[in-house]
Specification:
One of its GO terms (biological process) is division septum assembly. One of its GO terms (cellular component) is cytoplasm. InterPro entries: Cell_div_ZapB. Helix content is 98%, strand content 0%. The chain contains one helix and no strands. The radius of gyration is 34 Å and the shape is rod-shaped. The model has no long low-confidence stretch (mean pLDDT 96).
């Protein structure tokens, strides 16, 4: 009887050890995935920043052209 209890206990312990090993593997996989996602997010933020900077430059250029056109229209109006 005692032998049977110890045998069952050993089986349960082995199952627990196996399950813990699987969980450790899953944790490692999740860590790798998390690091990969962090890197992607970092790249996205970098891209966003570059786009915002370019947008500012484009808006500045647009304002310059708007002023030039306004000035030319005023000159044309003054000719009439």
């Amino acid at each position: 009887m005692v032998l049977e209890v110890f045998s069952n206990l050993e089986i349960q312990v082995q199952k627990s050890v196996d399950y813990i090993s699987l969980l450790k593997l899953e944790i490692n996989n999740l860590k790798l995935k998390n690091n990969s996602l962090k890197e992607k997010l970092k790249n996205i933020y970098s891209l966003k920043e570059r786009i915002e900077e370019k947008n500012i430059l484009i808006q500045e250029e647009r304002m310059k052209w708007k002023r030039k056109i306004k000035s030319l229209l005023e000159q044309i109006n003054n000719l009439e």
